[in-house]
Amino acid sequence: MGWKVQVVDGGLPDMYNNSVSLDDQQVMLFWTLSENSISIAARGEKKSGYLAIGFGRGMANSYAYVGWVDDSGQGRVNTYWIDGRDASNVHPTKENLTYVRCKSENGIITLEFTDR
């Protein structure tokens, strides 16, 4: 007699310790802190081709994480430093992201990553 294993996917709320609703409940942000890293997920309605979250007091002088699914179907998450309010002030960074995932299904885009 063997074991019967059933995987129950409770979704992002079960995978992260903390969450907050943003942008009039259009975006959910989830996160878990550990000693050396933070794991983050964001989920929102796909109004354009990407989902972006930023950390800072305003648009200027903040870090942004941008997730999208490219033309080949590959999920991407890139990081940026923003030091102003126009496109010339958006600078790619080299964050050490791991466990990077981004997917788009049924009009919802979800990004996940761990930053050390």
UniProtKB/TrEMBL annotation:
Signal peptide: none annotated. InterPro entries: B561A, DOH_DOMON, DOMON_domain. Keywords: Electron transport, Transport. The keyword Electron transport applies. Residues 25-116 form the DOMON domain. It comes from the Eukaryota. Pfam families: DOMON (PF03351). PANTHER family: OS09G0557700 PROTEIN (PTHR47281). This is Cytochrome, DM13 and DOMON domain-containing protein. The lineage of its organism: Eukaryota, Viridiplantae, Streptophyta, Embryophyta, Tracheophyta.
